[in-house]
Amino acid sequence: MEMLSLFLVLCRNWNDFMERGHIPVLLAAYRAMVNKCDRMLLALLKMYESRAGQTGFYDFKPYLWGKAAASHYSVRLNIENALWRQPKMGDILDILEDHYVTSTITNYPVKENLHLTDSDISQTVDTKSYDLKFLLPLFSQLLAPEQQVQTYRFTRSGALSLAVVGLSSQDKEVRQAACHVLSRFHSHVDARQSGKDNLLWLRYIEAGRQICETSNLTVFPRIYLARMALVLTQPNHVMYIPLSQHLTAKASLDFGTVPELYTFLHSSDVNYREHRSFILELLRDGVRTEKDFTDFTRSMAFKLFSELYSSCVSDVETRLLILDVINAACKVPSGVKMLCENHSLLAQVYTEVHNILKRSNREKQDINGFINKIVGILISVVTVLHNKHSSFTIFNILMSIIKDDVFESLKVDIKNRIFEILTVVFSNFGELFSDDVLRILLSRNNNHFCKYILEYGCQFVNINEIDKSDEYYYMKLLFYNKIKN
To answer: Are 72 and 23 in contact (CB under 8 A)?
Structure first.
């Protein structure tokens, strides 16, 4: 990072420093990911492009990156000879990795734009997502009218899915760039004379056009269409038939709510589990903003999967996914208030915890998974709601877990998160934590520090000396705050 910072300073203050031979090195180091290091490399590439006459930047089109660039522009070869071997479209698309494409569909920030400033670099949160600042212009170049395009390579690589990711961005320029890529892809599909799936992809692009025309859509349609693009390249995929039927059944698709929620959640198909998982994963990954949560509630999603959760047809995987959906909804502040005040979320969580604790040992094999997700929900709730009623309910839920024998089998990080919540509850409703409660907590975790301050007080203890990475940090903080007050 320090070397790249120095490189940036040199290029900004001494333009003659930029040379043609630097470009292969920068492209080889670049991974096209959303992280600070790659953003600095992208800033450098933009600077070299701004002085293309001096650096010969456009001679390297179309741009390879990463290991493929290192191999193509090998230092053992003459760069001039390497440029004669211009990369093909397939060489570039082969760089895209499936798991990063999937991660980008799920995690790409909706507030990203196409510009790159120093503040953008410093505020970048590292994710395992491809950077559309680089890829959307690259895709536009690959799909230029004069290019010979293998459309099936573009779809199978995940490039079309990445373009669709940009459609629900809150930045107008990103949406326009994504629409431009779709428009160029449409022209190549429409011009293709053969291909049994031509009509299917034309209908898909038409669905993408609907999103382009509506600027206030939620994240749900984008994720739905991006994942659909990956499925439509695999005719043997379980979701291929239901998604292709949905795409071709109507003249226009309704993206005003969660697409196909009722159909997939209550599917009667033999592959109903896969249908249900698909729509629950869409709900889990699609709730990011207040607008997303509004569409989530308007679709009656919470009511539908709450009934499914308590149903006998709901298996362990389905219940864990439903808890993931609730956790995602609770990360939206208005979601916490709506679910707790209008849908009795905490009462449902309390009931579920007691049902989990009543299960036999054989049924408790997934206990860590369930408790971990419930604790995640409670963390989101306790940070938004500070009233005594909510604090009291959360306190009772956690104490029931702590008093049960199952607490011993929980992972250390889950226990630490439980004490983190109790620390927040203490700040909201400290009267709940009597000496008897502290003794119960100490009996479940025989920590010497807590035992010492409970017996001798905390007059000579400096809480700032406790390492925050300590697995018992929040338990120690709770005891310290209680004894001190």
So the answer is: no
